């Protein structure tokens, strides 16, 4: 409440700033009073004659009730000092007190030492029924936010507090429970100097009635250091009472705080604000424990649900927003005299932020760090970021997925290793250069480099991250690798370096596979296994048979549309499979070949149809026209001659068996 009060202070209306409208007036002993004759040359214990005149004058002005927030525990009225010195003061106390319009104050010093007016004053005012405690009940942080309604007596009875008693004697209904003091509402409790009131009283012309008629007057100290206390309004700029230079017939110019700039305020002003709260019934209200609990649960539930979903930076932004929103809500509510426990809520939201994000850093984000570490060398940065932001898409325990698998093998590498046995550093450097370029291309096309197998690469699309149109992406990656190899070799020739790799073989297939962490308990990696993977490996190897570089399965071909140039070259059963599969060659349309020449492709397709129909003689004639420039056609020429010598069975479906891995 303290932090929101400066912004929740209600705008003072014209009526609120008119001091004459205040039902309460404070007559203050301030610094100026101490500097004004006759008070400046007189010790306070000897001020009782002046106070008697002030009390009498205020009473004659028609005051409702007077509260004395001053305690004179000692007196000069003693046989050994000045006998009869306090007689005017005691007479004033008796005249006003016995009419029920005067309440004396008493307080408690440290160590529960009671400080009371001396006994003669208590008897004069009419007994202890006209004495009330000036005690305040600060919270554990020594801030006065609440005001007591009653105090417990030693005999087990209770007695009303100072402000509560003044309100009762003024005709108001006293409160029965302690309450929050209203420092929010726009009120103006004027403060008049004791010296000014005493001077007006000397005129004896009755002009004090304009100042005190029907008012509740509190006489107390408004000094720079004495009797000051911290209260709810300690952060407010205008927390000091307004001290008026009275003109006897009315209020003069106001001086806020009489030049005092303190967080603390006079005790008399706290009593006055508490009295004003009782009279107006505007004490700030706190929410019931049940409502606070419900709001707390809903708040924590909402922020925690968002914290677990948002990245840390966004979570911090949310926390700042929540704290500011709580503060703004608390300010708005306090302006309507409703106190919200916004600081507790803000602390809870902050603790929830710290706990949840600490958990995420040490547990959940540990998984993200593992994912990043495991895949950053095999996936493009974009896919790694996607995977770390959506770790639920990666089931590390293993799952079945539809994937696309690519196997790439660098042709001629075995011979290069034999030629460079005495220069292994050159061999490794060049191999890494080739593999790095191919890996970059695979990642650029959304693939995951599963593993390096010597001079070969296994790549996967669709795991661990799902990518759009993986069939086309993998096929384009194969063509890009083919072009990159040619570019690397050309670069080596220009730089007069060794050309180690003269070609490559690529096989691409799609299908269902098991993906996940595989290996031993201590050493494992994320990979894929299954028939789809095996077929891709067989297709890569089959390039040796056909003299081709890129072979794809029918499952891949069906998803390519018209964007890739290819031709069907065979219908085969590979090792490890019982069902034959149609095989297609993919070529770069910019390179010369059978597949890119419409007429030659027509001749090949017709010859292939004759071959599968069992007309090997006619098929041979077609393949012969292409054999000189097409290794596949040359292979079919040999097959046709073999079939003519050894005809297949009548139930032959055109499928060939590939015996090589």
Q: If you average the pLDDT, what whole number results?
A: 85
Alpha-beta classification: alpha/beta
Shape annotation: rod-shaped
Q: What kind of sheet is the major sheet?
A: 9 strands, mixed
Low-confidence stretches: 11-15
Rg over C-alpha atoms, rounded to the nearest angstrom: 49 Å
Q: Would you count the extended β strands for me?
A: 26
What is the total domain count?
Answer: 3
Report the sheet-strand fraction: 15-25%
Distance between the termini: 80 Å
Helix content: 40-55%
By DSSP (H or I, 4+ residues per run), the number of helices equals: 21
Highlighted features:
Alpha-Beta Plaits; 3 domains; 661 residues; nine-stranded mixed beta sheet
Commentary on this structure:
It is a single chain. With 661 residues, this protein is α/β, with parallel strands linked by helices. The protein has three domains: 19-278, no CATH class; 286-374, no CATH class; 395-560, Nucleotide cyclase, GGDEF domain (Alpha-Beta Plaits, 2-Layer Sandwich), CATH 3.30.70. Strands 1, 2, 3, 4, 5, 10, 11, 13 and 14 form a nine-stranded mixed β-sheet that branches. α10 packs parallel to α12 and α15 (424-444) packs antiparallel against α16 (470-494). The protein is rod-shaped, with a radius of gyration of 49 Å.
């Amino acid at each position: 409440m303290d932090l929101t009060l400066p912004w929740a202070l209600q705008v003072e209306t014209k009526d609120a700033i008119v001091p004459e409208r205040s039902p309460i007036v404070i007559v203050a002993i301030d610094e100026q009073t101490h500097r004004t004759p006759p008070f400046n040359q007189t010790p306070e214990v000897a001020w009782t004659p002046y106070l008697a005149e002030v009390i009498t004058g205020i009473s004659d002005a028609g005051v409702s009730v007077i509260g004395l927030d001053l305690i004179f525990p000692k007196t000069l009225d003693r046989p050994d000092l000045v006998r009869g010195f306090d007689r005017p003061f005691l007479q004033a106390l008796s005249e006003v007190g016995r009419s029920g319009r005067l309440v004396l104050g008493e307080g408690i010093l440290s160590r529960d030492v009671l400080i009371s007016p001396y006994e003669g004053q208590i008897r004069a005012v009419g007994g202890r029924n006209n004495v009330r405690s000036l005690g305040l009940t600060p919270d554990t942080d020594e801030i006065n936010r609440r005001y007591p309604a009653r105090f417990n007596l030693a005999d087990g009875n209770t007695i009303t507090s100072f402000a509560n008693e003044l309100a009762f004697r003024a005709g108001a209904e006293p409160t029965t429970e302690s309450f929050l003091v209203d420092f929010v509402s726009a009120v103006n409790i004027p403060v008049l100097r004791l010296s000014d009131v005493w001077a007006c009283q000397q005129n004896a012309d009755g002009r004090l009635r304009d100042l005190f008629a029907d008012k509740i007057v509190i006489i107390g100290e408004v000094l720079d250091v004495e009797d000051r206390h911290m209260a709810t309004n300690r952060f407010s700029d205008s927390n000091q009472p307004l001290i008026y230079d009275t003109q006897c017939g009315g209020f003069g110019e106001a001086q806020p705080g009489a030049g005092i700039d303190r967080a603390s305020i006079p005790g008399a002003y706290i009593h006055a604000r508490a009295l004003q709260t009782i009279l107006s019934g505007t004490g700030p209200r706190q929410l019931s424990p049940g409502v606070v609990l419900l709001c707390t649960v809903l708040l924590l539930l909402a922020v925690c649900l968002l914290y677990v979903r948002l990245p840390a930076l966004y979570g911090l932004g949310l926390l700042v927003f929540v704290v500011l929103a709580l503060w703004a809500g608390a300010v708005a509510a306090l302006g309507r005299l409703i106190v919200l426990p916004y600081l507790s809520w803000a602390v809870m939201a902050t603790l929830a932020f710290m706990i949840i994000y600490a958990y995420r850093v040490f547990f959940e984000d540990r998984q993200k760090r593992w994912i990043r570490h495991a895949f950053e060398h095999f996936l493009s940065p974009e896919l790694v970021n996607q995977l770390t932001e959506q770790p639920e898409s990666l089931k590390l325990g293993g799952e079945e997925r539809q994937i696309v698998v690519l196997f790439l093998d660098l042709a001629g590498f075995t011979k290069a290793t034999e030629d460079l046995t005495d220069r292994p550093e050159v061999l490794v450097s060049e191999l890494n250069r080739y593999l790095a370029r191919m890996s970059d291309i695979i990642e650029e096309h959304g693939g995951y480099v599963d593993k390096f197998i010597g001079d070969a690469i296994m790549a996967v699309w669709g795991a661990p991250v799902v990518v759009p149109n993986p069939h086309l992406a993998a096929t384009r990656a194969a063509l890009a690798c083919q072009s990159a190899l040619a570019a690397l070799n050309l670069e080596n020739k220009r730089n007069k370096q060794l050309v180690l790799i003269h070609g490559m073989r690529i096989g691409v297939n799609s299908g269902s596979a098991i993906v996940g962490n595989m290996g031993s308990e201590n050493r494992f990696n994320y990979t894929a296994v299954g028939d789809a993977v095996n077929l891709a490996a067989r297709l890569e190897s089959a390039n040796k048979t056909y003299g081709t570089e890129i072979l794809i399965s029918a499952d891949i071909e069906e998803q390519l549309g018209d964007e890739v140039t290819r031709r069907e070259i065979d219908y085969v059963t590979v090792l490890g499979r019982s069902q034959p599969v149609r095989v297609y060659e993919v070529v770069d349309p910019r390179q010369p070949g059978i597949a890119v020449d419409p007429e030659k492709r027509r001749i090949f397709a017709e010859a292939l149809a004759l071959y599968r129909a069992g007309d090997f003689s006619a098929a041979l004639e077609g393949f012969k026209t292409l054999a000189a420039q097409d290794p596949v056609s040359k292979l079919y020429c040999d097959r046709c001659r073999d079939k003519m010598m050894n005809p297949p069975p009548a139930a032959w479906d055109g499928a060939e068996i590939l015996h090589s891995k």
